[in-house]
Each structure stands twice: as C-alpha cells, then as structure tokens.
Amino acid sequence: MLKIGLLGLGTVGTGVLEVLEQNRAKIERRAGGPLRVARALVRDPARHSGKPVELTTRAADVLEDPDIQIVVEVMGGLEPARSYMLEALGRGKAVVTANKEAVAEAGSELFAAAERGRSDLFFEASVAGGIPIIHALKESLAANRITEVLGIVNGTTNYILSQMSLKGREFAEALAEAQAKGYAEADPTADVEGHDAARKLAILASIAFEARVKPEHVPTQGIAGITQRDIRYARELGYAVKLLALAREEEGELEAGVYPALLPSEHPLSAVHDAFNAIFLRGDACGEAMFYGRGAGAHPTASAVLGDVVDAARHLRMGGRAVACTCYHPLHRKARGTTPRRHYLRLILEDRPGVLAQVARAFGDQGVSLTTVLQKAMVGELAEVVFLTHLASDVRIEAALGALSKLASVGAVGNWLRIEGERG
Ligand code: NAP
Ligand code: HSE
After folding, report:
1. Which phi and psi (to 5°) does residue 370 adopt?
2. CATH topology of domain 2-129+298-318
3. How far is residue 245's CA from residue 109's CA, in Å, rounded to a whole number?
4. Shortest-distance ligand to the CA of residue 100
5. 72 CB under 6 A from ligand 1?
C-alpha cells in the first residue's frame, strides 16, 4: 500500500479523492498496487466534515510522516506551498503539484531539491488542467526540436473572448458571466491581465526550449482593452481574437509573450471556444500538433494529478525516476519588438481629404506597408478606420503610432493588435 498525503482539499484536492474512488481499480492497476490517501492538510477542518480522509491543520503531519511517500500539493500560492514541497522532496518523497505559480517561480529550486532527495517532481496539472501537455513535451515529443508553442492556456479569458465574439457581449458583461460560472477567480486580475497565462507559458517554454524561462521573461498584455468592435472587425476580415501565450525560437533566440492577437479563422486555435484550452506546437520531426481539452475544473485537473501519481507510484515500486529539470541551456532572449509580423490597427481619424495620405506617410516613414484600409463607422464627427499591415516589427509600429499621435487629424488609437498564426 502506497500512502499519499494531500496538501489542500479544495476544488482539486476533493476532485482527486472523487476520481480516485471512481476509477480506483484501473488507477491501482496502472500504479502497480494499492494507493491510499492517508491524510489531508487544510486550514479549516470544519469546512470538510464528511470527506473520507483524515484531516490535519499541521503540515508536519503530512511532511514528516515516513509512511507517506507521495505528497500531492493542491493548496496553491507560492508560500507556504513552495517550502512544503522543498521539504517533502528533500525527505525523498515524490511530489505532485498543480501549482503553476510555484513551478514557474521556483522550478529550479524544486528540481534541485528533487535531485538532492533522489525524488520525483511532477506538475502536469499546473498547465492547461486535464491536457497532458507536460508529459508530451518532456517525453512523447523528446525527439523533436520544438520551434513554436502557441497556446490558449487561460480558460477565463477564452470564455470572455468567445462570449464577445459568439454572443456579442461587451467585455465587462462577459467577465461577470465568467465569474458567475466559476471560471474566473474571485479576483480575476491574474486571468484578465494575462499573468496566469504567462506563468503557464514560462513552464511550457522552459521544457520546450530547454532553458529556464520565468514569468518576468514573458512580456504580458491582458484582454481588458479588447472591444466588441475589434472582435467584429477582426471577424469581418477573417480573424478571431484570442489571448495567445506564444514562445518561438529562431536562430537560437527565444521570443515569448502573452497578448491578445488576431488569428486566421482557419487556424485550429480559432475554433477553441468557451473555457477550453489548447496548445498548438511545431516540432521538426512531428510537424504540427495540437492538444485540446479542459484547462480547469475539479475532475479534469484531478485527471492530470492522478496520472502523475501513477508515474510516481510506479517509480517508487519498480525503480526509475521522472525526467528531471530540462533547462540545460542558458536563455537567449530575442530583443524586444524585433520580430516581423502583421498588425491590426484601429484609428479614430478626422473624416476629410488628405488624412489617409498623412497616416500612410507616417507608416511609410517607418517602412511599414499597409495591406488593407477599411473605413468602418463614424464616432461623432470622426471616422473609425481599420488598417492591416504587411510584416513589420513592433518597434516600427510603435514609432509610426508615435508620429501619428502628433497629427491633429488623428483623434485616437482605438487599438493595436498583432496578427499571429499566418503561414508563409
Ligand atoms: P482551493 O479550492 O482554494 O483549495 C485550496 C485548499 O488548500 C483548501 O482546502 C485550503 O484549506 C488549503 N490551503 C490553502 N492554503 C493553506 C495553508 N496555508 N495551510 C493549509 N491549507 C491550506 O484551490 P484549488 O482550486 O483546488 O487549486 C489548488 C491548486 O491547483 C492551485 O495551485 C491552482 O492554481 C491549481 N489548479 C486549479 C485548477 C482548478 O480548476 N481549480 C486547475 C488547475 C490548477 P481550506 O479548505 O481549509 O481553506
Ligand atoms: N483561472 C484559470 C483559468 C484556472 O481560467 O484558466 C486554471 O488554471
């Protein structure tokens, strides 16, 4: 009998108990023998009466119990989760965590502790909930040189953008719905501002590109500035607006970022709606691959946690260890804003002869060529005009917008979004 200790018994911890009970025979066959959740750490035992597990409020009851060989950390937050995991790993226990914050911020420390303890660290559930992307990147795709990872890894923002696109909702209305459905956190800032996606991208990129990428290496922009008009205009032009988590390697340099972008409607990620997540990647041997599924929720996340528990149990019973830290190389980051890509710009302009020529000149002065100009609607006395560009770096677009902001004929920059996922 292998004993498991849970740190946390909230949404995910309770899901782990339920799925283990539901599929116990199958899970134990895969794990090579019986498993038992021996104890769970909580803050307030009164909230958990009736749950089929012994409760404790003392972390030591889990961390220092020599009979507990697998510690499942599902409490969340950086501290004390990080310290508890370090202690468990140092004591030679296998650790399974769903905690993207701790893995993204303290991954190297946690892996070093696993090395010292000759123990395993698993974190499948930390990115994209039930989608087995960590295992795929670490093992199934190990024979590939990965060149691009493009993900929709935050369910809340994907739900909001889907509602804005499919149901015509405005941002605030769609956010309120996401909160009512329980997708968004009580404080949805990390979701809406892209920080949750940036942590998940840091974890994915560290594995895919074999260099330690931390959240602070991921320039991050959220979706609060996306309006119903941008979504509508993008759709008319053949694009969907998605919050993308992107990492791409070119000539040994890594570009990483989280930002809302236009994706061609035929791109597989454009069909990922509601709170679903997906990761699209490119490897030199496998070509394009996409992983799709539920990025959150008690049972999808428990599915990932228990898959890791099976691996941990097999290693404890039969020997062997998980693939350890894959950050073998120093990180070489691409200079910010230098990648050529196409752009979408929505400008509010005076509606009189010669204004478009002034705008075209400001772009032309930066070597930015326009492919599409569409006058959309009047905003009071001013005209709303949408521009798509040929390939241009962000730096060039910034410079053009700087020049445009000085023109009396330019009322405002309505929005500027990058276009990603186009071929050729
Ligand atoms: P949750 O519902 O808030 O549950 C957290 C649990 O941890 C609660 O049982 C809480 O105890 C316990 N806890 C928290 N801090 C503690 C402390 N200092 N000492 C003792 N116990 C403590 O959280 P969750 O949604 O299950 O998420 C857990 C982890 O999974 C997080 O890292 C999250 O990012 C990750 N994750 C969640 C999902 C999801 O769908 N929810 C998906 C993927 C990953 P009390 O019950 O007594 O308050
Ligand atoms: N708040 C996260 C999301 C939950 O919306 O995707 C899963 O990490």
Report:
1. -95, 140
2. Rossmann fold (3.40.50)
3. 24
4. 1
5. no
The residue length of the chain stands at: 424
Domains 2-129+298-318 and 342-419 share a fold: no
- Looking at residue 424, what is its pLDDT? 56
Q: Which residues are catalytic?
A: 200
State pLDDT tens for residues 88-109.
999 999 999 999 999 999 999 9
State yes or no: cis peptide before 80, omega within 30 of 0: yes
Q: For residue 17, what pLDDT band results from cuts at 50, 70 and 90? A: very high
Nearest atom (ligand 1) to Cα of 12: 26
Fold of 133-294: Dihydrodipicolinate Reductase; domain 2 (3.30.360)
Q: Which residue has the higher pLDDT, 23 or 352?
A: 23
Any atom of ligand 2 within 6 Å of the Cβ of 420 = no
123, 162, 183: which to mutate for ligand 2, most atoms within 8 A of CB?
Answer: 183
State whether the beta carbon of 9 lies less than 6 angstroms from ligand 1.
Answer: yes
Mean pLDDT, to the nearest integer, of 165-180?
A: 91
Q: Candidates 1.10.530.10, 3.30.70.260, 3.20.20.80, 1.50.10.10; correct CATH number of 342-419?
A: 3.30.70.260
Cα–ligand 1 centroid distance for 86 (angstroms): 18
CB 194 within 8 A of CB 264: no
Q: Residue 380 has what pLDDT?
A: 79
Mutate to test the pocket of ligand 1, among 9, 12, 17 (most ligand atoms within 8 A of CB): 12
Q: For residue 60, with 0-12 CB atoms within 10 Å meaning exposed, 13-18 middle and 19 or more buried, which class applies?
A: exposed
Angular region, 382: left φ>0, alpha ψ -120 to 50, beta rest = beta
Ligand 2 atom nearest to 200, measured from its CA: 8
* Percent of the chain whose predicted confidence (pLDDT) is above 70: 100
Say if ligand 2 is within 6 A of residue 193 CB: no
Per-residue pLDDT at 396 exceeds 90: yes
The domains of the chain are located at: 2-129+298-318, 133-294, 342-419
**Measuring CA to CA, which residue among 83, 104, 67, 114 is closest to residue 7?**
83
268-300 confidence digits (pLDDT tens): 999 999 999 999 999 999 999 999 999 999 999
